[in-house]
Amino acid sequence: NYHFNMSDLIFKEDTHQYFIGDRELISVSKLISLYKKPFDSTGKIIARCAERDGKTVEELRKEWDNERDTASARGTNFHKQAQHWVENGEILEEDYKDVVKQLTTIPFKGKLRAETKIYDIKFGLAGTVDLLDEYGNKFINCFDYKTNKKLKKTAFMPVERSVVEIFRIIV
Length: 171
Known about the structure:
Layout lengths: L1 E3 L4 E4 L4 E4 L2 E5 H6 L10 H10 L3 H32 L8 H7 L7 E10 L4 E11 L3 E5 L13 H11 L4
Parallel strand pairs: 4-6
Antiparallel strand pairs: 1-5, 2-3, 3-4, 5-6, 6-7
């Protein structure tokens, strides 16, 4: 059975670990990462890309670091804006207000929860759901925001689909 926002779930933000008592649950992010090839930004990839683009490795590393930091800030800002809308019913006059306005047009089925911790003991999984739509007594829909500059719609689909199925739970 799944649980959310339960007091027995401990989340250690600095290490991104979830626990029930002494038992560590695997995070959904970690589960998905097991099926991805690691990105080596310091080895052959960056050297080839720098050569291709006519840049030094250091110049390209700075660009990539800047792009990573910009993307992280974009994701954080959007999540905060969306969470505010879910919890307060209002859209802040800040970045991404137009995207949050689009969220308000989705015909959700029930009570919305933002940034909700959820776990399943049977599967030993835990995660934080960006947006949870709880309806009826038996159903939840989980939504994961993607704020990437370029969204890859096919990469790792079989893995993501299986994880989604685990969290699309009928009580």
